[in-house]
Amino acid sequence: MGGSLLKPVILIGIVYAILKFIVPNIPGSAPLPSSLIFLYLMLTTSGIVIFATLSGESKDAFWGPIQRFLTGENIGGLQVLRYAVLLLFPLIVGWQTYSSTATSDAPPAENRTIHPAPPGEYTGLSNPVSKTPDAIQQGKGFYAAFCSPCHGGNFDGKGPAARGFNPPPANFSDPTTIAMLQESYLFWRIKKGGVGLPIEGMPWKSAMPRWEVELPDEWIWKIIMGEYDGAHQSPRTWE
Amino acid sequence: MTRGMQQMKWGCAIAGVGIVCVLAGTTIGFAQESVAVRAPMVKGTLPADDPSSAVWGSATPATFPMSPQVHWQNRIQEATVKDLTVRALHDGTNVAILLEYADPTEDPDDSAAIEFMVGDKKAHFAHGQPMAQVEGGPVNIWFWKNKDGKGVDMNAKGFGTLKVQGHQDVKAKGVYANGTWKVVFTRPLATEHPEEDTQIATGGFINIAFAVWDGKKDASGELKEKGSQKAVSSWWYFRAEAPPDYSGYYYALLAVGLALGFQFVLIRKLKKGHSA
């Protein structure tokens, strides 16, 4: 086995190590999904094959060792490795086939989008109610009457009626819920309820009532004010 | 170098890429938090009339939290039943589902129900009510009331559309003892009315939800829970387990054989190419 094969193997190893261990540690980055790493490795492999087969000479230098290894001619001590590869390859193919045909024992995976995009008419609406202490207080009163059974008196999503619902009612004190959203988004979600969600939000599972049939818009805007104040959060703004 | 040899080399390349593919092709799994009712297949008669039968021991119980129905009017803020334990069995023809829950009093109006989606369309868990951006399907509801002592097969697609079916396939029996209701529902796995009845194919997961009414009357003689005032669950999963399937092993053996054959042919051709 010549050195011509060693370089590609080392190169693929380095690329894998970078993608797996270095990229996730770059600030602002995240671990790459294995499918993406696989894609990058395939691209690297294709690149190596194209590069190695550019000229007749390099082609021989690249394929020669592979061919000698597979036929087992004059490879000396590598004979054991050759048998290992010839044994492992069918076993891996068999294992891969088994795992792809075996029926899964787990229920279908559910990737529900928690905050899907609102319909166009609900983006950028501003709260028409003036933010006075009176309005906030009124909003908190409405919240206590209509929302707190599920979303909780402490705005933590742990109301007495919440236990059976999946997805669970939103926890407004969590900085990843209403603090990330604009008031107009909350207006949409309260007004149209769970059944107003797009398909990625799995509307068939949500217990959120469609409050537009029971509450006037003004009350909904006041509830939004009461929620932010009570949960000690501020709406997201683009300024 | 002969042309045949070049072809072989490309065969090598494909094999090499194949190995890389196989080695790197890890499957991605998602964490699953949902709970499912699993109905194992049993031999012999299903304990349809006997919620206390020892046969139920072969089913793994699944427990689901219940909420008061707050999704639409008339709602209630608190319901009697907080948790529901479910077991299920099937015999290849019929399915039996046992609901078990604590209720301090036995009342004539005590009731329980199981809900399924019908067909391929998703249905909202609240009686399959219309959804704004998704076209939903109907729900199939199996209902039991203590004083009626039978199962009722129903459909709904939105509030106020609950309708008893013309053909009744569901049987139900409830037994009350020691502050606990045990209610068994039975139905054939498949029926002749796929438009109205949920069809249960073994091995596949389908959606299931539950509702319970405490039929106790308050001081004024009004029922504590009735109609939309009930304890409800969210959608969960149900599966009638398929008989053991060994086909995966056969496919794997076949794949091993093919891979061995491929190696054999490839190396033989390479050796021939060398000597040529």
Which secondary structure elements does this structure contain, and how are they paired or packed?
The complex is a heterodimer of chains A (239) and B (276).
Chain A: H1 3-22, H2 34-52, H3 56-71, H4 79-101, H5 133-151, H6 183-192, H7 217-230
Chain B: H1 3-24, E1 36-39, E2 62-65, E3 67-68, E4 83-90, E5 94-102, E6 111-117, E7 139-145, E8 150-156, E9 163-164, E10 171-177, E11 180-188, E12 205-213, E13 231-232, E14 236-240, H2 247-275
Parallel strand pairs in B: 1-14
Antiparallel strand pairs in B: 2-4, 3-13, 4-5, 5-11, 6-7, 6-12, 7-8, 8-9, 10-11, 12-13, 12-14
Helix pairs in contact in B: 1-2
The domain count of chain B comes to: 2
**Distance from first to last alpha carbon of chain B:** 9 Å
Tell me the Rg of chain A in angstroms: 30 Å
- Largest inter-chain contact set: A-B, 67 and 76 residues
Mean pLDDT of chain B: 88
The multimeric state of the shown protein is: heterodimer
* Shape field of chain B: elongated
Search tags:
heterodimer; A: 239 residues; mainly alpha; 2 domains; elongated; B: 276 residues; Immunoglobulin-like; nine-stranded mixed beta sheet; five-stranded antiparallel beta sheet; 2 helices; disordered N terminus
Description:
The complex is a heterodimer of chains A (239) and B (276). Chain A has helices spanning 3-22, 34-52, 56-71, 79-101, 133-151, 183-192, 217-230. Chain A is an all-alpha fold and 239 residues long. Chain A folds into two domains: 3-86, no CATH class; 120-230, Cytochrome Bc1 Complex, Chain D, domain 2 (Orthogonal Bundle). In chain A, helix 5 crosses helix 7 (217-230). Chain A starts with a helix and ends in a 9-residue tail after the last helix. The mean pLDDT of chain A is 91. Chain B has 276 residues and is of the alpha+beta class. Chain B has two domains: 36-240, Immunoglobulin-like (Sandwich), CATH 2.60.40.1190; 246-276. At the A-B interface, helix 2, helix 3 and helix 4 of A face helix 1, strand 3, strand 13, strand 14 and helix 2 of B.
